[in-house]
């Protein structure tokens, strides 16, 4: 009974951990997670190499789960894959003769290690790859230890696991040198028989049929449109990723093997390193298994040393898995030593309670690590972390209106497209992804030339010299120079603040998105003559005059320096003041214009705001 209960407990405990920290929706902009949250439910082609097995399984789960948005359901697949991997680690440790408590503790240490946990709580491919890696290791070792009557069954399971790995991620290739040597060491004579190879080949190749998803969805293509340019075989070969990150080093990364080992140590702490060292005797006694595991770890470490990507930790997951197994074996040495020592004691109480105390201490290790890392692991709290990107996407679409074109980075445009798909928001809004400055500038010129209402998401060199700009929500609206057509301010003012500048009106709108309340301040500046350079400090003061919140920036989201304002135009400016809660008492809105060079105040204006709730 216990043999079935503890694996189930391992799966349930790790899944509960991931569900309690799982991102509830979209939470990233500039990585692959957002791409997957849109591509999986629409079956668009993922970036090279396509990850078809992952996409098919995640698509199936996403359409079966009836709760949460599409992003949450794709996130959930990562959590389920991670919990499956942790359970496989437990089962593998048990098969290597690790006692249940050390096996459980080591599995939970991997479950909460920072790099692994981060991948388990968002849409990504790496926990599924981790599950496949552990499936390969488990079936290989079970095959090696199986009686003759069961060896064929485990060998077929191993072929299927390897085929699934090849259908998912190229990290599987790093497992093959160690795996081949292990297989030939165990049973080279039998494995090379033509009949055996012929029986395994169809099982190995069957998962690769999932790559047919790419030509079948070619009419949809990839989110960035590059699949139509590259085609099937270049996409399958990696789309140039290998050349870019091995030969060209586009990010200028300087990383040593020592840096990688430090990163590995950070996953489990010095205590984990100590437990790994204690496992030393096992590696000398079990040379076949040691060869398999150590070759995988060394091959992975060598690859990571030459692969110059920023998020190298995810490519070290095979190494982390081997380390977790080593920690389980080290814990087993302590467990056996404690059992031997307690068996020889003459104190009945110590003999009765000694092993439960040792078990408690071992299980406290992952608990202590979880407590230390919890603030970084939790993607559900606080609301600003969990819902900030979600609300930013909603805000952009609401601000753009019904018929417009938004031009920005690929991640931002993917976010808008996600909400157009998921919530059917802003269906009349066109998105143009352009990561290069000159491409964004060309897109803006073309859009305005077509008479489109045009927005961009960030400041852009050369933009204020050529166009007039307005702040509209989080977006920057672009107009032909001096031709901005703005709505009338709800609060009309006509207040001179500088000889060159009048504050014509203002608006303060309390907002309560899920990421937390804020006050959106809008200012209408009437330009008499081009003003001197200044920054604006927008502040909210409490009833006693104490500063509650402050935002300092150049006008129009840092995109429109006042020295480029044109005489006679009106500039719509905007600031969002984040609040812990909407105040239920009167507050003061204070606007200060100051010289950015020395901080000297140039002008100020303030008004009393009524309670916001």
What does it look like?
- Helices cover 55% and strands 15% of the residues.
- The protein is built from 24 helices and 13 strands.
- Helix 2 crosses helix 4 and helix 4 packs parallel to helix 7 (126-145).
- It is of the alpha+beta class and 613 residues long.
- The protein has a 5-stranded mixed β-sheet, sandwiched between helices.
- It folds into 2 domains: 2-377, no CATH class; 489-613, Immunoglobulin-like (Sandwich).
- It has helices at 2-21, 32-42, 52-64, 70-95, 100-111, 114-120, 126-145, 148-166, 176-191, 194-205, 213-216, 226-230, 232-236, 241-248, 257-278, 280-285, 287-306, 317-343, 348-377, 383-400, 410-422, 437-449, 463-466, 555-558; strands at residues 404-408, 429-433, 454-456, 468-472, 475-479, 491-498, 501-511, 518-527, 535-541, 547-553, 570-578, 587-594, 601-609.
Domain module tally: 2
Q: In terms of per-residue confidence, which ranges show pLDDT below 50 for 5 or more consecutive residues?
A: none
* Number of DSSP strand runs: 13
Q: Termini separation (Å)?
A: 57 Å
Brief overview, please?
It contains 24 helices and 13 strands. It is of the alpha+beta class.
Key terms for this structure?
613 residues, Immunoglobulin-like, four-stranded antiparallel beta sheet, elongated
Please specify the SSE layout and strand pairing.
Elements lengths: L1 H20 L10 H11 L9 H13 L5 H26 L4 H12 L2 H7 L5 H20 L2 H19 L9 H16 L2 H12 L7 H4 L9 H5 L1 H5 L4 H8 L8 H22 L1 H6 L1 H20 L10 H27 L4 H30 L5 H18 L3 E5 L1 H13 L6 E5 L3 H13 L4 E3 L6 H4 L1 E5 L2 E5 L11 E8 L2 E11 L6 E10 L7 E7 L5 E7 L1 H4 L11 E9 L8 E8 L6 E9 L4
Parallel strand pairs: 1-2, 1-3
Antiparallel strand pairs: 3-5, 4-5, 6-7, 7-8, 8-11, 9-10, 9-12, 12-13
């Amino acid at each position: 009974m216990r043999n079935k209960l503890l694996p189930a407990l391992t799966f349930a405990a790790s899944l509960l951990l991931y569900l309690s920290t799982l991102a509830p929706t979209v939470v990233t902009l500039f990585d692959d997670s957002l791409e997957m949250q849109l591509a999986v439910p629409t079956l668009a082609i993922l970036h090279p190499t396509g990850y078809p097995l992952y996409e098919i399984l995640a698509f199936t789960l996403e359409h079966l789960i009836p709760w949460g948005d599409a992003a949450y359901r794709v996130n959930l697949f990562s959590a389920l894959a991670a919990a499956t991997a942790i359970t496989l680690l437990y089962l593998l440790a048990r098969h290597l003769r690790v006692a249940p408590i050390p096996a459980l503790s080591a599995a939970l240490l991997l479950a909460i290690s920072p790099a692994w946990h981060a991948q388990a709580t968002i849409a990504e491919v790496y926990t599924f790859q981790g599950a496949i890696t552990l499936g390969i290791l488990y079936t290989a070792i079970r095959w090696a230890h199986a009686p003759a009557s069961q060896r064929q069954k485990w060998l077929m399971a191993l072929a299927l696991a390897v085929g699934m790995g090849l259908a998912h991620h190229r990290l599987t290739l790093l497992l093959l040198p160690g795996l081949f040597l292990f297989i030939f060491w165990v049973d080279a004579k039998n494995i090379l028989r033509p009949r055996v190879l012929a029986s395994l080949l169809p099982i190995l190749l069957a998962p690769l049929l999932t790559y047919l998803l790419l030509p079948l969805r070619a009419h949809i293509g990839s989110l960035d449109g590059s699949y139509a340019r590259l085609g099937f075989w270049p996409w399958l070969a990696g789309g140039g990723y290998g050349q870019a990150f091995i030969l060209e080093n586009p990010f200028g990364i300087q990383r040593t093997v020592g840096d990688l080992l430090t990163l590995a140590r950070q996953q489990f702490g010095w205590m984990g390193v100590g437990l790994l060292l204690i496992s030393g005797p096992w590696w000398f006694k079990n040379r076949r298994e040691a060869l398999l595991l150590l070759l995988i770890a060394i091959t992975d470490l060598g690859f990571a040393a030459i692969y110059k990507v920023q998020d190298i930790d995810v490519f070290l997951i095979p190494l982390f898995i081997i380390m977790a197994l080593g920690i389980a074996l080290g814990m087993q040495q302590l467990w056996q030593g404690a059992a031997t020592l307690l068996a020889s004691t003459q104190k009945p109480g110590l003999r009765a309670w000694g092993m439960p105390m040792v078990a408690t201490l071992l299980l406290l290790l992952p608990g202590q690590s979880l407590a230390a890392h919890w603030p970084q692991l939790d993607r559900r709290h606080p609301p600003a972390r969990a819902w900030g990107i979600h609300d930013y996407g909603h805000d952009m679409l609401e601000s753009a209106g019904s018929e417009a074109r938004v031009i920005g980075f690929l991640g931002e445009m993917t976010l808008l497209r996600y909400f157009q798909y998921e919530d059917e928001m802003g269906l009349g809004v066109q998105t143009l992804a352009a990561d290069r400055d000159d491409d964004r500038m060309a897109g803006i010129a073309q859009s305005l030339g077509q008479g489109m209402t045009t927005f961009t998401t960030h400041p852009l060199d050369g933009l204020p010299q050529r166009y007039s700009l307005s702040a509209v929500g989080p977006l920057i609206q672009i107009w032909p120079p001096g031709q901005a057509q703005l709505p009338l301010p709800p609060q009309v003012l006509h207040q001179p603040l500088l000889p060159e500048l009048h504050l014509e009106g203002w608006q303060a709108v309390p907002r309560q998105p899920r990421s937390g309340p804020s006050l959106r301040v809008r200012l209408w500046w009437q330009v008499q003559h081009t003003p001197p350079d200044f920054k604006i400090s927008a502040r909210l003061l409490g009833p006693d005059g104490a500063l509650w919140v402050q935002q300092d920036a150049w006008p129009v989201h840092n995109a429109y320096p006042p020295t480029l304002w044109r005489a006679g135009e009106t500039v719509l400016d905007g600031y969002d003041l984040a609040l812990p809660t909407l105040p239920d008492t009167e507050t003061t809105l204070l606007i200060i214009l100051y010289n950015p060079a020395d901080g000297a105040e140039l002008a100020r204006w303030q008004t009393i705001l009524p309670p916001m709730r």
